[in-house]
């Protein structure tokens, strides 16, 4: 049975959350990726689509039935009220679907991968422990430029909307500094996994 012990894994964009989470997954942790859950709500047939159509009209839905991301981005960028309306649709659904995914997940313990964990206050009360994946900001910028084929300014704009490295580290119980070769990181993950297994055994 999956232990009730749960970990929140976070980090800035490009810090290596997905890379590190997958290493824990290979060792037997159950991964619940909140970004993926949020994304699935707005693909064609997604649970949020009917409410988005009602709230924002047909122009908010693309021809293939998914949320028209460009249209919505423009709408909420210019208008904070519209942004709040979108969040009022998405946030409860993300929460519900995350809880469902957690109940269905199988592994030694659960890892919730939450990019904006420190930014969204209540997550801190929903997990037993917080792991921050950290690296220097220039590394983040270079990784995301190459992964997403983005301009430096675009990446820096996203980073300005996230908490600072210091604020994130202040919320951490554990830190993985993801600035070296992946074998070094893997060894660090294995060490922490042993700690989490021991904590999970106590939570059963
Ligand atoms: P996040 O999920 O935090 O946005 P990712 O895990 O997707 O970050 O990592 C961002 C990019 O950097 C990916 O292309 C990934 O393959 C690469 N990457 C992550 N960690 C390392 C590392 N230690 N060495 C080299 N490349 C890395």
Tags for this entry?
Rossmann fold, 5-stranded parallel beta sheet, single chain, 204 residues, binds adenosine-5'-diphosphate
> What ligands does this structure carry?
adenosine-5'-diphosphate
Structural class: alpha/beta
Sum up the overall morphology in one term: globular
Task: Give the spatial strand order of the biggest sheet.
Answer: 2-3-1-4-5
Number of discrete helical segments = 10
Number of strands: 5
Q: Roughly what percent helix?
A: 55-70%
- CATH homologous superfamily identity of the largest domain: P-loop containing nucleotide triphosphate hydrolases
Backbone CA Rg: 18 Å
Q: Briefly, what CATH class of the largest domain?
A: Alpha Beta
The CATH topology of the largest domain turns out to be Rossmann fold
- How are helices and strands ordered from N to C? EHEHHHHEHEHHHEH
CATH architecture of the largest domain: 3-Layer(aba) Sandwich
Overall pLDDT metric: 95
Low-confidence stretches: none
Q: Structurally, how many domains make up the residues?
A: 2
Termini distance?
9 Å
Q: Could you tell me the strand content as a percent range?
A: 5-15%
Major sheet attributes? 5 strands, parallel
